[in-house]
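Below is a filled-in request sheet from our internal design queue. Each sheet records the structural input a requester submitted and the sequence that came back. We keep these sheets so that new team members can see what a complete request looks like end to end.

REQUESTER: design group, bay 2
PRIORITY: normal
MODE: inverse folding
CHAIN LENGTH: 209
BACKBONE (tokenized):
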């Protein structure tokens, strides 16, 4: 139930249904999701570690604000980790995981054609989890898990003004395809191309009206 609570609340934060700066409570979320307080509390603690919420002792819980400068610093670390995870996954993925990556490719292509933002966000989350699993490196996976929610939320906030959803989906699909094919070098290069686009997008938000 904690995993379910986490997934539901994380999606609400990432897709801005719970807006930055909004106060939230265990009771409110429990009533909304039909989940008990203990799983909600554990999910919120996890989200606090990922900096998606801020827990203020004796004052409550708020959804964390979004900061461009922090996002750029995050991308410096994310670039290195994503390259490592992508190339490692290409080398170490099992046959079953490679089959899942091929399904992810098809899902990204579908969201690109439909310009489906929520579908893309859900596919991106599944892709991130699968990459971390297939890399078979718990240390890299743990570090990466702290960044994905923040990155998806930032993208969702600004993509209509400064991003190209079909291109972003294609760049993700290129990584998934390279991993599925066991091409570690190409997976790393595809990861760099994605991070180049994400960094440009992030900087463009500084000048986009």
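RETURNED SEQUENCE:
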């Amino acid at each position: 139930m904690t995993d379910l609570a986490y997934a539901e609340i994380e999606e609400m934060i990432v897709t801005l249904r719970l807006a930055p700066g909004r106060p939230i409570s265990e009771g409110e979320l429990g009533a909304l999701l039909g989940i008990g307080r203990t799983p909600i509390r554990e999910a919120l603690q996890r989200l606090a570690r990922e900096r998606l919420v801020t827990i203020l002792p004796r004052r409550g819980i708020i959804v964390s604000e979004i900061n461009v400068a922090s996002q750029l610093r995050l991308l410096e670390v994310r670039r290195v980790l994503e390259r490592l995870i992508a190339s490692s996954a290409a080398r170490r993925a099992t046959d079953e995981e490679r089959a899942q990556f091929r399904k992810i490719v098809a899902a990204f292509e579908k969201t690109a054609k439909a310009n489906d933002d929520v579908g893309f966000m859900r596919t991106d989350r599944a892709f991130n989890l699968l990459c971390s699993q297939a890399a078979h490196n718990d240390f890299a996976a743990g570090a990466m898990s702290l960044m994905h929610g923040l990155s998806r939320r930032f993208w969702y906030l600004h993509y209509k003004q400064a991003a190209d959803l079909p291109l972003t989906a294609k760049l993700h699909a290129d990584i998934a395809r390279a991993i599925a094919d066991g091409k570690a070098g190409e997976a790393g290069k595809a990861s760099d191309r994605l991070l180049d686009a994400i960094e440009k997008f992030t900087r463009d938000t500084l000048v986009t009206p």
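SHEET NOTES:
- Residues 2-63 form a domain with the Arc Repressor Mutant, subunit A fold (CATH 1.10.10.10).
- The chain has a mean pLDDT of 90.
FILED BY: M.R.
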